Amino acid sequence: xxxxxxxxxxxxxxxxxxxxxxxxxxxxxxxxxxxxxxxxxxxxxxxxxxxxxxxxxxxxxxxxxxxxxxxxxxxxxxxxxxxxxxxxxxxxxxxxxxxxxxxxxxxxxxxxxxxxxxxxxxxxxxxxxxxxxxxxxxxxxxxxxxxxxxxxxxxxxxxxxxxxxxxxxxxxxxxxxxxxxxxxxxxxxxxxxxxxxxxxxxxxxxxxxxxxxxxxxxxxxxxxxxxxxxxxxxxxxxxxxxxxxxxxxxxxxxxxxxxxxxxxxxxxxxxxxxxxxxxxxxxxxxxxxxxxxxxxxxxxxxxxxxxxxxxxxxxxxxxxxxxxxxxxxxxxxxxxxxxxxxxxxxxxxxxxxxxxxxxxxxxxxxxxxxxxxxxxxxxxxxxxxxxxxxxxxxxxxxxxxxxxxxxxxxxxxxxxxxxxxxxxxxxxxxxxxxxxxxxxxxxxxxxxxxxxxxxxxxxxxxxxxxxxxxxxxxxxxxxxxxxxxxxxxxxxxxxxxxxxxxxxxxxxxxxxxxxxxxxxxxxxxxxxxxxxxxxxxxxxxxxxxxxxxxxxxxxxxxxxxxxxxxxxxxxxxxxxxxxxxxxxxxxxxxxxxxxxxxxxxxxxxxxxxxxxxxxxxxxxxxxxxxxxxxxxxxxxxxxxxxxxxxxxxxxxxxxxxxxxxxxxxxxxxxxxxxxxxxxxxxxxxxxxxxxxxxxxxxxxxxxxxxxxxxxxxxxxxxxxxxxxxxxxxxxxxxxxxxxxxxxxxxxxxxxxxxxxx
Length: 757
Hints:
It is a single chain. By secondary structure, the chain is α+β, with helices and mostly antiparallel strands. The longest helix has 35 residues.
């Protein structure tokens, strides 16, 4: 029998041949996989710094002009000095003034640490600019020369002096915030978040898998595949990232998605292989059936996720390009591992995969059973589809309604992280005392004479109009950067709120056109954080429809091809949209409205991270294919073998319940870990993804999908108006039955039905 199985595998479809070869050469495949992971990690570490992301629109032009100068960057830092209770004026307070003088003397004494330092005590002009409007805060500002490595060394020495000044003047608050301090705080928090996610995700996933499989070895196999896929994915991302920009968020997303799909794909495959062996089949036959059923479904699901993510490239925004390429890499590696190294490990382990069983769990977890609970729920829904389906539909629509009031924004460095971080607290205080100081707009001017006097008149006019405006600050600096002139203009507001956006509009549409009206040969573009976020939102608004359309059309085509049932494909897409809409609605309630602030420990910035909804839509549409493919394939299989549409739904939902529930629990647990991290964007992503999977695996699976299929009846599976022929299940189904077993299975089904009547 084993010889016959080998021959069939050798001549079968490509997937079965891959699985067969991997099973026959397990050591080669496992060693090759480990080498692939090691090489990817080494190449990623050796790749060096990655390509830099460029802002969209006008802000991107300004950013590119600065980068083209290829000059050594300099960095601005500010030290806020005020009384701890802000109950004293800065000027006239001997303690506060002596603090500012002590600090400036210490910094000036550091050789080469700064190129410019100004204090409120220098002269009348600096006093007017560097004392807050209410007179209670003073600002010592200085510039640290680059390049980056040298600037970091200088910054470390300056920070030591700032700490010494604070210790010497306990009656004054000395708080530093600026380019390096805030960026360092963000980078450190991102690294710590990634490390915490790695630390928590592995043991949590292992515990869930132990409960699912009841054996430590079986639980370790999916974890090994997922962890190595993530490591290889991060390594390849480091290499690809030298060409395609990928920011720090992408690494966390790769970990999040890689662990979820890596475990899920191998869980589907391993669970099926164990069920086949428990049914009495030998190892070779069990692997062959698993390849044709679960393996094929995993490949279809993985391809769908990859193609859906490719839709993000249509946005033509660097942020989405990095997320798309990072996620595509790790999903592709997870699929590759599930059809190569996973069968190799199962072949090598054989029956030992069930080793180290846990009491009360090990024996029950190897048997393929139908869930009585989910079968009962599906049975109740199919008897009253309008009632239960209507209630579930109303509930999801109600949850989705807040999404229509969603406000896309981007948390600034001061909004993303908690104020318990000293640099963030300093930045918030500085922003409150000197509005616009933390995120000024950068006006980049180029053309003939831009740095040799041609723009001087425009700069003076800009200062004059800014002084008369409530939206622009008058602490304007103009410095040459290579052949271009960089003008920094403080904007009112917090940097990302409506006030800052209105200040940016005033600068772009009113002030700058008037200031440069009498200049010729000069061009300018407005960049900076506020401008970058505003232009990002503008570009995203125009291109989102193309991304959504691409994903919807692609998903419909894939489902039609998989099931030859257009109505089923349409129903699946509508249910996906409902689940995603409800998840986004909960994100709006929890984060934009701040209802989860106390529970998760963040301060709401009044919006939703601008890239989150579109990314969630794309990735969830792909991931939900896991559940829909497995559940619908079971339902279609039952219907194709002669069961009524309602019975097929009941038995299909019940028979797929174990593996779908296990996969959902793993995904929800991994996603929920991200809600515990410090960055608010991670919290939103974790909550949004976890809620969407929870809804998809409960309300959609248990109520809406059975109700919809029950109402459609035989029409759900009809092709061109005619019932599909009763044929042996397609290879894409989750539970394909071997030839000769139909009578046995049908008799079992009939017996089950008789027993329930």
